[in-house]
Write a sequence for this structure.
């Protein structure tokens, strides 16, 4: 998660909403991503989407059942769909996102692949603080 936080800091420094993600396969980081919505003028350029696309390219596979995706903030519904279709085996996130996280839409319904494992709250305080600092600076 610390590596995902480094990615989030890159987004913060670029004026993007500070969300970072990494994909691991075993103990190896195979891809990284951070929000690039403003830079790419693309509302789908979320950290998870960028990290997943890079992982597909790196591994030469459209499915990632052995992979773990770490993301600093609870994924949105769009990113959950991408994780579902890519069959990511493990999803780990830091801070909750009450306004835009998947649970706002799904409630407690499972939006991930049925075999996926989920862990939340990892470095949640640090992940949330980066978001708070970002939005406080813009208000």
């Amino acid at each position: 998660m610390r590596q995902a936080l480094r990615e989030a800091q890159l987004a913060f420094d670029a004026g993007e909403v500070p969300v970072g993600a990494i994909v691991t396969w075993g103990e190896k980081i195979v891809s990284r991503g951070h929000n690039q919505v403003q830079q790419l003028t693309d509302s789908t350029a979320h950290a998870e989407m960028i990290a997943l696309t890079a992982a597909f390219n790196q591994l030469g596979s459209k499915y990632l059942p052995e992979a773990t995706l770490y993301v600093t903030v609870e994924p949105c519904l769009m990113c959950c769909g991408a994780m579902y279709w890519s069959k990511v085996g493990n999803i780990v996130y830091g801070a909750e996102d009450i306004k835009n996280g998947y649970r706002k839409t799904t409630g407690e319904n499972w939006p991930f692949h049925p075999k996926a494992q989920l862990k939340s709250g990892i470095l949640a305080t640090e992940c949330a603080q980066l978001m708070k600092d970002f939005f406080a600076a813009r208000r």
